[in-house]
Here is the input.
Amino acid sequence: MRSLALALAMTATHALPVLAADVTIPTALGDSTVPAAPARIAVLDVGAIDTLKALGVTPAAVPEKLFLDHLQDAAPDAAKVGTVSEPNLEALAGAGPDLIVVANRTATKRDAVAQVAPTIDMTVDGAQLIADTKARLAGFATLYGKDAEGEALARALDDKLAAVAAAGQGKGTALVVLTNGTKMSAYGPGSRFGWVHDITGMAPAAPKLDAKANHGDAISHEFIAQTNPDWLFVIDRGAAIGSDVQSAQATLDSELVKGTKAWTQGHVVYLPSDNVYLAAGGYTALTEILDSLETALKQ
Here is the structure.
């Protein structure tokens, strides 16, 4: 902690006077007033980095691993300041940020990183994914004086949402399943991945799933067979995080699942798991998810 204190002291000593006016933006904890257009912003969440990239903003500090292919060039010269779940406070202080962004997995570290610089929580709640994604987009756009760009991105997002809703009309019921190796869990409306129902307009094949269960309801092949959805939307957690576990395709390869309407009609859709699991509230991640849904539903 002594080295952290020294880094903080050096950051304060070399800080330049803040000339930018303050701006108030919506965050996960309500409106927050911060200096506009921070020259050095540390962003500790993959989805937030994704949205800032869409707006043309490059962070000065990011986690060591960004996971998503389309983010590998998002901040090539940025300081690496720990992981998405465990920020390195000394490295963060050494980066000298004017503002720090936490969200989702790093939101619990807000008080710790706030020792280094002003911090905002831009978490996106999966239960209200679209509303939160738009709010974070608007907030970041206002922060950097890019309101026109943010509005254009929001209009493009609305167009994609409309296309998916149209593609989902009359397509029957859906079941959203997350696999983690050989384990499976299901998510219904109002839950972490329940936004699939909101976006497609498709009714849940299993209407009694626990919306408050962050890790979903544990299920089996028998459950999927009994539920018999018209469509099965699958998220592979192992593939998303690069874990060496059994794939979702292998886990679902059972005679029980093969007897469902979803399987026999070719309606098993493997969503882009890295985007869904790690950054669904990121602008480009969400647009890629919408594209995959529209393509699948139009087949």
